[in-house]
Each structure stands twice: as C-alpha cells, then as structure tokens.
C-alpha cells in the first residue's frame, strides 16, 4: 500500500472525536483514552485497511479545522457561508457569489456524513430538503453558531399551502410539514432525535419553538430536552424564489458531534396507522397455539410444572374489552393489548413501549393475533380465559361475590316492632291503638305536685301511626262550662283538695268502666270541629270528648 504512510499520518493527527467516529465506522470499541483509541486505529492500517476505511480516514481528515492564515483572526463570517449549506439549489446559489473568499476555508465547511435518522411512524417522508449536516465547532469558543439555508420547489410550496386544515374545530395545522431534526453524529446505526446542549434555533429571524427541557435535581447538570422533531412550517417562506434562513446556536461538546437535517413530511393520524396495521394481516392462530404449547411444555428437570396460562381479554391501557388484540413480535408474553388504544396514546406522546412488559414495541414490529381474534368473536361476556397444554382455551369462571346489605336502624327497629307485635298477637289480643303521653300545660309549676297525686286517669289512646308523640297544648284558661262537662279528672285548687280527690277517683272509675261516646255537637255540619269541643279538650287534656279524626288532625298540628 503506497498510501499507508499518508493514511498513518492522517490518523496520527486525529482528535478523540475523529478517532471515535473512525472506530465506530469500523465496528471497533470506541471507548477509552486517546492513546487506546489511537492504537486501535493504527491496528486497522497494519492489518490491511479496506477501501471504505481509507475513504473514511480521508473524509475525516478533510473536515478537520485548519489554522487561520497569518494576519487573519480566527473569526469567521458564517452568514456569508449560507448558500454553501443550501440543499436543492446549492449550485445555482454558488454561481452568484465569488468563490475566492471561501477557497481558503473549504476544509472548515460541514460535510454530509452518512447518518440515518430513525423513521417516525406518524410521518411519511416526502423529500429531503437538507441532508444531515454536521454541526462542526469553529474555534475554541464554547458557544458556537452556524447558518444554513434551503429552498422549496414550486410544487412543494403549493403542497404545503394546500394542506392546511381549515375545518371547524381544527387547529389550522399543516398536514404537509417542514420538519427540523437533530441527532448525534454516529453512523453505526439509525439515530434517535437528540438535541445539542443549550440549543437555540431561529428560522428567518424568528425563534423556533423547541420541546421544554426535562428538569433535573442533580447540581451542575443541564436539563435535557426530549428528543422529537420540530415543526418549522409556520416560520418558513412558502415561496420557490425566497430562501429560508436557519440560524443554530449551541454549546459545543468536544466529545460528541451533532447533525442537523430538514425534511418535507406528511403527518399521519392513528386511524391511518391502524388501517396499515390491518393491511399487514393477522398472524395465523397456529403460531399462537405453538407458542402456548412451548410455554406449557413439561420440563423433566423442573419440579414445578405450569399446567395453564391465565390471560385477560381486557386491554391493560384502556381497561376495556379488546377489539384489535395486538402485541409486538419482540415480546415473549401472550397477553395482548388493544391496537387502536395503543396507537392513539402514541399519537399524543410517542413512547412505543409495550404496556405489558415495558419493552420497546415499535410500529413495524406490531401484529394482530389471529388466535385472540377468534376468542373474542366466540366470547362476548368473558373477560378472562386460560390456555391449556394442548393449545386450547377455556373461559375462566370467577366466583360470584355475595354482598351483605346491612339494615338501617330504622328498618331494624320496625322489624323488631313487627316481631314483638307478632309474638304478642300469638299470646293474646293486641291493643288497637298505641299509647300516647299527653302533657297539659295549663297546670302551673307550683301545682305539679298536687296534679301528679290527683290526676290518675288512664292515658288516652291514639291511632297515630308515627309512634309515641308528645302533644304540647297551648295554655288557655279553662272555662267553668267546659270543666263541668268534662269526664276526665280536673286540676283542683289548693283550697278544695279533698273534694277534688274524691271526685277524681269517682270519675276515673266511672270513665274506665263505661267509656262515654262523643256527643253529636263536636263537629259542625260542614266538617269543622266544634269550638266547645276544642275548648273542652284543651282544658281537660283528654281526647275522649272529640272523635278520632279531629284528634289526629290536632296532634299533627302540634307536632309540626
């Protein structure tokens, strides 16, 4: 190899970042100190360097920054280099500028590394407006700044302008978008979206909205932004004649490199992805049966054998019965989840993690289980099933729960009363009306002692269904006419204690032996109570002078 000394000289001048990129491209270990990295890189040359490795070494050597000429400062006017980073109209723009000022700085221009970004399921790539371009630090300053520009074709500008959704209730977003993405400068595999530290993006002089940083409690650690694409369509000029300028500033990380890329994409919905998932077709039921037999196969070396597998027909995400049983081909479990719910949740926030095993479940790895589809069609009211060793299934019967309803105290009291009444009816005749206490408020406090000893008349009976009710009569003076016509014992004055005592005993005995029927003048012809009867009832405190209907109405009024 005639070029071996030259390639060795190039490798010896590499920094750590170039050595890591070279070793990663060759599939070697890229961790360790610079001396270790340099030794591994030189071993690639000693064992016979392949043509792709030689091309990569020359590419890394060309993109190395060169020292400025004597008499020139290290500052670079990046704004004048904008057309050099343009996409489709690169050569047409270069013709309108004098290339002489840039001839000495060709080595400092970013190159387009062979970096591939991961495909986003909710976006279809229509065109590549700017290829992945590396963010190369210029000089020793921590904060760097680069400028880029790109153009749109007439058809692209028209497609973007016509894709805006103006339907009622819509957000007036563009379904065809200009998408800005950042990633690490790694060519070993497809890269996820990754923002450089302290990133700031301006599109045509306006600040582009970036995802909010995730806060951290670690001191001295800068918050990291979640990796996702940035929609810059509202900030761009939808014109084929005007360029779109992008200004990127970031904090240089000399241990890692970053790339920027711009794509024209078409945004999709979860319904569109669900239709594509159905187009893939269902996985045959025999595949799932074979997997069940494999899991339930008896192991002679194991003392514990699994005879059945319990599986739920409820989606772990939506907690509802599955309609489209889905799982990823990378998952080892049999439990499925609802595909429609899974896609809708990832449309709001893309995580693409299996809700059962919490492992990555990307869209291109999803499939619909045909065996579960058959089970869901045959069962309409079952939520759980179990698989057997032969691959068959059976519904899992759940034990019914017995709910004990405790009775309220009122109901318990009423039932207790009913039991007492039934026992009393069996032993003897039950009273027709419950007893009710009546307190006469016409008696003064100093006559209470005399009244208790003198008033021994039986308590009046009431047909009220509310139980024991104490009726409070309003104090009214007892007229002499009412007191003489009353059959119940009257309250006597202190001067006639002896006479009243004898009269009360005789009247009580006569009233208990022969109850007196209510007289006809107690109610008028119109149905209103007789005033004389009401006055007699108040003065005497006994309901025997009025009929039952009047007494019930009067007691209800006093209760209210």
TrEMBL record:
**Sorted UniProt keywords:** Metal-binding, Nucleus, Transferase, Ubl conjugation pathway, Zinc, Zinc-finger
Q: Where is the SP-RING-type domain?
A: 300-385
| UniProt protein name | E3 SUMO-protein ligase PIAS1
A Pfam family of the record is: PINIT
One annotated GO biological process? regulation of transcription by RNA polymerase II
Stored PROSITE patterns: PINIT, SAP, ZF_SP_RING
InterPro entries from the xrefs?
A: PINIT (IPR023321), PINIT_sf (IPR038654), SAP_dom (IPR003034), SAP_dom_sf (IPR036361), Znf_MIZ (IPR004181), Znf_RING/FYVE/PHD (IPR013083)
One term under GO cellular component: nucleus
One GO MF annotation is: SUMO ligase activity
Query: From start to end residue, where is composition biased (Low complexity)?
Result: 421-430, 471-524
Q: Which residues form the PINIT domain?
A: 98-268
């Amino acid at each position: 190899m005639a070029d071996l000394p030259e390639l060795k000289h190039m490798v010896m001048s590499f920094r750590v970042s170039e050595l890591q990129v070279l070793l990663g491209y060759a599939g070697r270990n890229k961790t360790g100190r610079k001396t270790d990295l340099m030794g591994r890189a030189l071993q690639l040359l000693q064992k016979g360097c392949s043509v792709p490795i030689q091309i990569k070494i020359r590419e890394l050597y060309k993109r190395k920054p060169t020292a400025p000429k004597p008499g020139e400062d290290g500052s670079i006017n990046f704004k004048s280099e904008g057309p050099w980073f343009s996409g489709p109209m690169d050569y047409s723009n270069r013709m309108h500028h004098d290339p002489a000022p840039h001839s000495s700085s060709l080595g400092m221009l970013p190159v387009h590394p062979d970096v591939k970004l991961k495909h986003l399921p909710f976006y279809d790539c229509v065109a590549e407006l700017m290829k992945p371009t590396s963010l190369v630090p210029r000089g020793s300053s921590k904060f760097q700044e680069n400028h880029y520009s790109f153009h749109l074709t007439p058809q692209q500008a028209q497609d973007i302008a016509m894709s805006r959704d103006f339907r009622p209730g819509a957000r007036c977003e563009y379904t065809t978008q200009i998408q800005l993405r950042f990633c690490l400068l790694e060519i070993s595999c497809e890269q996820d979206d990754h923002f450089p530290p302290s990133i700031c993006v301006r599109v045509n002089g306006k600040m582009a909205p970036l995802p909010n940083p995730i806060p951290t409690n670690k001191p001295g650690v800068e918050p990291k932004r979640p990796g996702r694409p940035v929609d810059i369509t509202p900030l761009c000029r939808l014109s084929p004649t005007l360029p779109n300028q992008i200004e990127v500033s970031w904090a240089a990380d000399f241990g890692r490199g970053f790339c920027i890329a711009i794509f024209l994409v078409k945004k999709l919905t979860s319904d569109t992805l669900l239709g594509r998932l159905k187009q893939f077709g269902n996985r045959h039921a025999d595949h799932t049966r074979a997997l069940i037999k494999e899991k339930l196969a008896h192991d002679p070396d194991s003392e514990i054998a699994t005879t059945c597998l319990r599986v739920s027909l409820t989606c772990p995400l939506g907690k509802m019965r599955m309609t489209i049983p889905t799982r990823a081909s990378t998952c080892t479990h049999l439990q499925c989840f609802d595909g429609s719910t899974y896609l809708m949740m990832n449309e709001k926030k893309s995580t693409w993690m299996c809700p059962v095993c919490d492992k990555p479940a990307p869209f291109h790895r999803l499939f619909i289980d045909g065996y579960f589809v058959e089970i869901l069609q045959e069962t309409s009211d079952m939520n759980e099933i179990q698989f057997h060793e032969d691959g068959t299934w059976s519904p899992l019967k759940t034990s019914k729960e017995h709910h004990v309803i405790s009775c309220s105290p009122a109901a318990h009291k009423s039932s207790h009363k009913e039991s007492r009444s039934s026992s009393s009816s069996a032993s003897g005749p039950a009273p027709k009306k419950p007893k009710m206490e009546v307190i006469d408020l016409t008696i003064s406090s100093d006559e209470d002692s005399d009244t208790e000893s003198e008033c021994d008349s039986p308590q009046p009976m009431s047909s009220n269904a509310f139980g024991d009710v104490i009726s409070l009569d309003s104090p009214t003076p007892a007229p002499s006419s009412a007191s003489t016509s009353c059959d119940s014992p009257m309250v006597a004055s202190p001067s006639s204690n002896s006479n009243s005592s004898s009269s009360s005993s005789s009247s009580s005995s006569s009233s208990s032996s022969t109850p007196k029927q209510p007289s006809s003048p107690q109610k008028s012809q119109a149905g209103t109570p007789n005033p004389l009867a009401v006055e007699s009832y108040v003065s005497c405190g006994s309901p025997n002078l009025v009929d039952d209907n009047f007494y019930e109405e009067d007691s209800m009024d006093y209760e209210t």
